[in-house]
Design a protein that fits this description.
alpha/beta, Rossmann fold, five-stranded parallel sheet, 5 helices, Rossmann-like_a/b/a_fold
Amino acid sequence: MIQHILVAIDGSDTSRKAARFGHDLAQQTRARVTLLFVLEPPRVLPLGFMDAELISGASRSPEELAAVRRLLDEVAADLPSAQVEKVVEIGRPADTIVAMADKLGADHIVVGARGLNAGGRWLLGSVSDRVLQLAGRPVTVVH
């Protein structure tokens, strides 16, 4: 029985479809829903020949966090009859989604598919593919 659904949100159209799917599933099963937005941390790249590192990407500003919270509020407002919790985490998306599902005791994970072509998926991987591999629970990928 599904009691808690974790829906990963990134602001894309497919993640909004995933939120709607998670809401509909929650209504059918009387589960609660957690919307999760994962911000990637800045990457530290060793320079090798020097005893130095290069930081790639900006640190997260209060304005960016506020924008993410507004997005989560907007998505939650589109899910009128569900009890929705909103969470923002910083980390590698797939790993963080699975870790939060474990931490929150979510029975089911819903993610949107990015629609990468086969070449892009091979080169970059995809968050939804990695979540499917790591989750250890049912995962729905919404296209």
